[in-house]
Amino acid sequence: MVANLTELLDRAATTGPDRPALVDTGSGRTTTWSELATEVALVAQGLVEAGLVAGHRVGLVLGNRSELVTAYLAVLRAGMVAVPMNPKATTGELVRMLADSGCRLVLAESGTLTGVRAAVAGLADVVGEPSGPTEQPTEQPAGRRGVVPEIVVLDEPAGSGERAWASLRAGSAVAVPPPRDPESLAVLLYTSGTSSRPRAAMLPHRALAANVEQAAAVEPAMIRPDDVVLGVLPLFHVYGLNAVLGTVLHQAATLVLVPSFDPEGCLDVVAEHGVTVLPVAPPVFGHWRKRDRVAERLRGVRQVLSGSAPLGPELVVEFQERTGVVVHQGYGLTEAAPVVTSTLVGGGAPPPGSVGAALPGIELRLVDETGAAPEGHDPGEIVVRGANLFTGYWPDGEDGPDADGWWATGDVGFLDEQGRLFLVDRLKELVIVSGFNVYPSEVEDVVAEVDGVLEVAVIGVADEETGEAVVAYLRLASGRVPEEVVDDVRRHTATRLARFKQPREVHVVDQLPHTATGKVAKGRLRATERRRALGLLE
């Protein structure tokens, strides 16, 4: 197993230098493996010359484009730590992630530059220091690392105190040898995990490389060297970053980068570029089931890989019957880098509803509330062990695997006789919208800031297009007009939360249900939403 993920890049550039590595549909540019290796060497040297050293964090607030791949690999090559962030994150969310991670440098493009500049300016006001990668951190409240990052600008002229992307490529492609410590930190990925607040999972090179190797050991192969892979899953998410990009690196396949998902546009890309493997999130099936000529436009595809959230069995059957393309599902988590199971493992047709068996090298077991194995085929909490697991949450490794290497996922499932996993529920209240984690308490805190809201409860409900959607229930102060408060909530959450975290529906109620211990009985709220979905409520 490689000690640094960029060793896979070196291998690909040696064995197939002229083969296409990246096809960037946004710019129309194709990059070969040798060209990508040269670009990564240039930027790695540029990062070093900018004053960064091993262990420094670099924020990446970019959409799916070739420069994101280059920057990510250059950061790893130079022994630094990549911090990919959602390019649609709000300014407040960017401030929190930049402050928490202590990024010394942050890359932004035209679509994210305004938010990044506002976030960095907000940090500067708090820290009270000029920005720059060579500053020493100071003690700051609320976990802040006391660093104001320097901005690297793509697409637009750099402003005062900023650095142009071209400046990172201005030197010579010095061969920066990759660090050889597989336990060194490679990536910080923000996730709700099993906590009540989003925090960064610490993924070392060992975890990234291990999961790529584990996926490569599956037969039949998820991705082969001759495959052309659709890169529409966002690369700031672990699924796109390692399950897709990491596996493409390992196999020296071709990745077709798509800036964002558009149902018609992606079908056109698949047909135009001869895509053979489609790694997608479940909401894609809801979009494509409504499109004409789907089977014709996917005729070159050999398989579809679905992950990041459960996919309904009836949707799988409908898609396969309509297109003739096999859909394979998997189960994964950010903390597992990410793939834990796949329906490709073991061969044969998986039973409906299964997310497959554990990948080679990954152990999986179930436990009840006492930590013992559940009786018979009863469900239990899913606990995993493997070299692909993270080391804990930033910055001190809190809540990582136990002394024996086992980590409790917070998800509930059951296993059949063949060891195939079926997901049942989540122990926590996590909501997954289009494959992205939304923790209700984060949304509740923002909604509670609105004048007139006395109490708020947020739950997730099923949604055909996004898998789940956020719904908020409000109890208001007397005398407040419900419609006005709902409008205020929508305006406030639009400025404070990323779009996928914003409530799709807001309901005003006289009282919220509570348990005997005073907690909001969210199970009763979910039951209300189920009745609403069945048309039993007006």
Structural account:
By secondary structure, the protein is an alpha/beta fold. It has 3 domains: 32-180, Rossmann fold, CATH 3.40.50; 199-426, Rossmann fold; 431-533, GMP Synthetase, Chain A, domain 3 (2-Layer Sandwich). The protein is 30% helix and 25% strand. The chain is built from 15 helices and 25 strands. Strands 12-13-14-15-16-20-19-18-17 form a 9-stranded mixed β-sheet, with helices on both faces. A 5-stranded parallel β-sheet has the order 4-3-5-6-7, sandwiched between helices. It has a 4-stranded mixed β-sheet with strand order 2-1-11-10, sandwiched between helices. Helix 1 (6-15) packs antiparallel against helix 2, helix 4 (91-101) crosses helix 5 and helix 7 (205-216) crosses helix 8 (238-251). The protein is globular. The chain starts with 5 loop residues before the first helix and ends in a 5-residue tail after the last helix.
